[in-house]
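Anyone up for a design puzzle?
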């Protein structure tokens, strides 16, 4: 039995409503989480706890409540609590009865992922009557050659997968920043789309809030709606927003000033940030909302990358502590201000834009590298891709891949077995033994963490150096599909367009789910979305 205390559902709900800091971490796999969870629970699977906890909960005296489904998977929260306490977390509790206890207490259970943000998108459309346009009408406008531009508010990887014909990729926080160059003619109609609804609605309303002179509409139901209307999508396109002109930047700054005044966006100095970060008993997140290339080119050492559009669309991927303070970073304040305005409307009470955030500051190049707890690099032997290739040819090893099932499906080492780290104790029974059991994961980190666990099960373990990424980098052979499955694929929440075959039924169900979130929010009663008067 873990030394963590137990809290009943009513007590946890009171803490959520209080506004005090609390992190509710659901330790089930992401796909299982998506089948049903508390509204403000953060998906943080036990499989990945070592790699995510420091970013999610950077202050070790933050109140943490761990959750699983109930008695059937209570071992997840027991083990999670033991690990957190061993790493120095001092206020760790377990939700008594888990999600089952929460539901028995009469509280709402939500399906899907990124629910607070998606529900907020529906709130925005209902509150501000964000204009929308059906896909058939957009197609007719394209065919007539009308003066219009379609701006796709998703990240590049999603846009590149599929997009509306003629659409240009311009992720959420970039919209009000770059629209002045993309649609300089005030007579140009601006259509904003995403895959479904949320980013279309928020993106279109961002431009309306910005006060641009153009007519702005959201594409109803995004690329899913386009497909369901029987229209053809494009695939593999490269259209991206252009470099920002000086005139465009000047107009974007005017936009930011208007939005800042309307929504009361506060700023802070570096000196104030330093004081907050030194403060005990209070969590401060420092998030850089620029695009990925800008972040990698140079960022503040203690900041994390959270592209503004994605932060609004899915804040629970970046922030776990309810009631925390949020400080946003960009190069001139525009994208940070637009992002802050939305977080404020969501009900976050302390959101700031860092003044002159990058001016005359030492910057770090490259991606963010999270702190990893519990790493034992001596826990297992290692093998290079060349060595593994020889071991496979000599039939002296079995390979277990701990990548998520979607990544595994898209390409894995031939003959490998798929398994979920937190469920290895069960899945290992399905995997044949060999002289060596070689663990891999995309970058090798998860494999290294799992090595001592598998070693304790009686296997001779080796870890692939730098993981499957290293294997792929050398253009070695890959196998695709759900082959060698020692576990279920419910580790991942599959979106309709992640499925092997286009699933129109899943698309319709997904869109209906988004629309109905507003009704469920009213029953739940824990959100604090804010309505602001028109400009």
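Challenge accepted. My sequence:
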């Amino acid at each position: 039995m873990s030394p963590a205390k137990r809290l009943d559902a009513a007590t946890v709900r009171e803490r959520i409503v209080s506004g005090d800091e609390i992190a509710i971490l659901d330790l089930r796999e992401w796909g299982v989480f998506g089948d049903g969870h508390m509204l403000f629970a953060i998906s943080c699977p036990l499989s990945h706890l070592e790699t995510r906890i420091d970013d999610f909960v950077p202050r070790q005296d933050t109140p943490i409540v761990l959750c699983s489904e109930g008695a059937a998977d209570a071992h997840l929260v027991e083990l999670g609590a033991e690990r957190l306490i061993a790493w120095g977390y001092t206020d760790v509790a377990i939700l008594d009865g888990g999600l089952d206890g929460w539901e028995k207490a009469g509280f709402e259970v939500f399906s899907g992922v990124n629910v607070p943000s998606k529900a907020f998108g529906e709130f925005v459309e209902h509150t501000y009557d964000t204009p929308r346009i059906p896909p058939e009408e957009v197609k007719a406008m394209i065919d007539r050659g009308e003066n219009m531009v379609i701006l796709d508010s998703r990240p590049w990887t999603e846009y590149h997968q599929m997009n509306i014909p003629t659409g240009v990729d311009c992720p959420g926080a970039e919209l009000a920043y770059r629209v002045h160059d993309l649609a300089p003619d005030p007579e140009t109609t601006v259509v904003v789309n995403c895959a479904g609804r949320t980013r279309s609605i928020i993106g279109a309303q961002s431009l309306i809030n910005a006060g641009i002179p153009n007519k702005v509409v959201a594409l109803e139901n995004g690329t899913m709606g386009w497909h369901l209307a029987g229209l053809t999508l494009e695939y593999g396109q490269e259209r991206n927003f252009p470099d920002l002109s000086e005139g465009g930047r000047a107009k974007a700054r005017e936009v930011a000033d208007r939005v800042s005044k309307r929504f009361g966006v506060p700023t802070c100095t570096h000196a104030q940030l330093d004081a907050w970060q030194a403060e005990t008993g209070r969590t401060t997140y420092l998030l850089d909302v620029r695009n990925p290339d800008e972040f990698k080119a140079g960022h503040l050492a203690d900041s994390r990358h959270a592209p503004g559009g994605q932060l609004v669309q899915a804040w629970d991927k970046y922030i776990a502590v309810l009631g925390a303070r949020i400080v946003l970073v960009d190069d001139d304040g525009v994208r940070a201000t637009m992002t802050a305005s939305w977080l404020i409307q969501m009900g976050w009470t302390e959101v700031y834009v860092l003044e002159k955030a990058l001016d005359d500051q030492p910057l770090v190049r490259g991606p963010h590298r999270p702190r990893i707890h519990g790493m034992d690099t001596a826990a297992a032997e290692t093998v290079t891709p060349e060595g593994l290739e020889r071991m496979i040819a000599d039939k002296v090893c079995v390979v277990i891949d701990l990548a998520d099932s979607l990544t595994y499906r898209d390409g894995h080492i031939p003959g490998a077995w798929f398994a979920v780290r937190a469920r290895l104790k069960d899945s290992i029974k399905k995997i044949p033994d060999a002289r060596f059991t070689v663990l891999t994961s995309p970058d090798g980190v998860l494999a290294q963490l799992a090595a001592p666990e598998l070693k304790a099960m009686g296997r001779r373990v080796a870890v692939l150096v730098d993981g499957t990424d290293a294997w792929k980098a050398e253009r070695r052979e890959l196998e695709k599909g759900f082959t060698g499955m020692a576990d279920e694929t419910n580790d991942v929440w599959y979106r309709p367009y992640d499925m092997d075959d286009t699933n129109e039924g899943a698309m319709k169900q997904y869109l209906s789910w988004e629309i109905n979130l507003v009704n469920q929010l009213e029953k739940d009663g824990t959100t604090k979305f804010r309505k602001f008067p028109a400009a």
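A detail worth pointing out: The radius of gyration is 24 Å.
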